Amino acid sequence: MKNPSASMLVIGDEILSGRTRESNMHFLAIELSKVGIDLKEIRIVKDYRPAIISAVRKLSTSFDYVFTSGGIGPTHDDITSECMAEAFNCKIDINIDAKKILEEYYLGLGKDLNSARLRMARIPEGAKLIKNSVSAAPGFSIENVHVMAGVPKIFQAMVLSILKTLKRGRPNISKTLKLLLAEGDIADLLKKTVADYPNLSIGSYPFVKSGKYGVDIVINGDSSELIDQFISTLESKIKKLKGEDLT
Amino acid sequence: MKNPSASMLVIGDEILSGRTRESNMHFLAIELSKVGIDLKEIRIVKDYRPAIISAVRKLSTSFDYVFTSGGIGPTHDDITSECMAEAFNCKIDINIDAKKILEEYYLGLGKDLNSARLRMARIPEGAKLIKNSVSAAPGFSIENVHVMAGVPKIFQAMVLSILKTLKRGRPNISKTLKLLLAEGDIADLLKKTVADYPNLSIGSYPFVKSGKYGVDIVINGDSSELIDQFISTLESKIKKLKGEDLT
User: Fold this and answer.
1) What is the DSSP string of A76-132?
2) How does residue A207 score in pLDDT terms, banded at 50, 70 and 90?
3) Runs of H (alpha helix) within B121-202
4) What chain B residue is nearest to A193 in terms of C-alpha separation?
5) Strand, coil or helix: what is A26?
6) Could you give the CA distance from residue B4 to residue A126 in angstroms, rounded to a whole number?
7) Residue B16 and residue A42: Cβ atoms within 8 Å?
8) Which residues on B lie below 8 Å from A17 (Cβ)?
């Protein structure tokens, strides 16, 4: 059976302007890999209604899950919740449970639940809340889209909480064979070996370290045995090639 | 006159699997911002032909420029050049200039220009080469798409070389007003002030530092005077609010 597929939608001008270095997608990629959900695509769009709405509609129909980050705070540039309602043609209003969560939180801080903060309780109708263990204001799930905050600490807590509830697949296993060889010297041999292992996904990533060329051969799959078999096959072919061609 | 628009297409399984932290988009975002080209969207897709082809076609028709990274090396998983040819319905073959560049480079290294390395000279017909000052194998421009390597050092050199040749706009000016206030306390006031400055793009980014809440108000625009005017207006409104409500 195939693993569930996923995509991520990052919402925020600050990434596209270069002000902020995006730091949520790496975390999400690793967590999804652990639970056997295949992350297939990431899109980053501006805080701009048509861009958000069109991206979420497209991703929602193309993949089993969509994870979004950003745009659910109290300020004028936080428009994600409104866009989700529009994308799925549903109403949006103050959610009673979300309001209660915010009331308790701001009461505890001795702060006023003013109209700006109350905006964070505006949730599309029918959506299910995602707990925010850091700063209370919840995310939410609507259809197959999980809407989360952009602040990394909050995003991470929300991802871990929502992942528990989702259907998972076979976790990805990844091993790396580090070779101190130029990528171009083994590319042909690698290509032939890869062709014999259609159930593995194999990437080749060159690097330069202390002036020396090397390449990481990264093998992904769901069978540790098959990966090991690929590695030993490739290693013995390389030894043979070294004896013949490379010195 | 409006600034040219741009998008980026990152090609590579290694980002989506979580193996590698993406590190080119931040560089590109900053460089584009300097020369007045507005980066509107980023997509990250797998080393998978249909995904690459469909993304590049869509981005190429939606934005003035597309910048791609990844997938132009010598190994089996480097399929970007073939995909670009297919996306634009043109032939792909060994490019004589690219072959000459590779021949000289590998001759200098005392290495063989084998069939795998020669693949890096396969360039869609009609494309214009982009110089690679690091490791010779060139990128290329086809229509409005600029195809570059994924290795950060090479990507950066290629971006700087190609940007010199492109039509630019008015550089973006960005200033940040750092406030040691909770975002929710000033959100309403901020919203009203923002509404008076339709030519500025204003974002609000909360942070927690040493246990204290703060918010960065980031103002982007092309007029330094207008940005300063917004900042002093907002500051005086906040002072007034502080006197009244916040202590």
Assistant:
1) TT--HHHHHHHHTT--EEE-HHHHHHHHHHHHHHT----HHHHGGGEEETT-EEEEE
2) confident
3) 152-163, 183-195
4) B76
5) helix
6) 40
7) yes
8) 29, 33, 39, 172, 174, 218, 220
Q: Is B210 an interface residue toward A (CB < 8 Å)? A: no
The contacts of residue A180 (CB under 8 Å, 6+ apart) are A212, A213, A214
Q: Does B82 touch chain A (CB under 8 A)?
A: no
Question: How many CA atoms are closer than 13 Å to the CA of A54, on its beta-carbon side?
Answer: 11
Please check whether residue B173 touches A, CB under 8 A: no
Residue B27 gets the label, from left (phi > 0), alpha (psi -120 to 50) or beta, of: alpha
Q: The tokens 């991703």 sit on which residue?
A: A59
CA gap B105, B107 in Å, rounded: 5
Burial class (CB in 10 A: 0-12, 13-18, 19+), A1: exposed
Domain annotation for chain A: domains and CATH numbers:
5-163 (3.40.980.10), 173-244 (3.30.70.600)
Give the 3-state secondary structure percentages of chain B, helix then strand then coil, rounded to 5.
40, 30, 30
Q: Does residue B115 have a pLDDT over 50?
A: yes
The whole-angstrom separation of Cα B223 and Cα B229 is 10
Q: Which helix (H) or strand (E) holds A114?
A: none
Q: φ, ψ for residue A57 (rounded to 5)? A: -60, -45
Supply φ then ψ for residue A130, to 5 degrees: -110, 125
pLDDT digits (tens, 9 = 90+) for B37-61: 999 999 999 999 999 999 999 999 9
Q: How far apart are CA A115 and CA B185, in angstroms?
A: 10
Query: What are the pLDDT digits (tens) for A141-180?
Result: 999 999 999 999 999 999 999 999 999 999 989 999 999 9
The interface pTM score, or ipTM, of the predicted complex is 0.94
Q: Per-residue pLDDT tens for B117-130?
A: 999 999 999 999 99
**Interior CA angle at B124 toward B118 and B129, to 5°?**
75
Amino acid at A93: D
Rg (CA), chain B: 23
Q: Select from B231, B28, B145 the least CA-distant residue to A17.
A: B28
Residue B154 in tokens? 């090479």
Residue A184: how many other CB atoms lie within 10 Å? 28
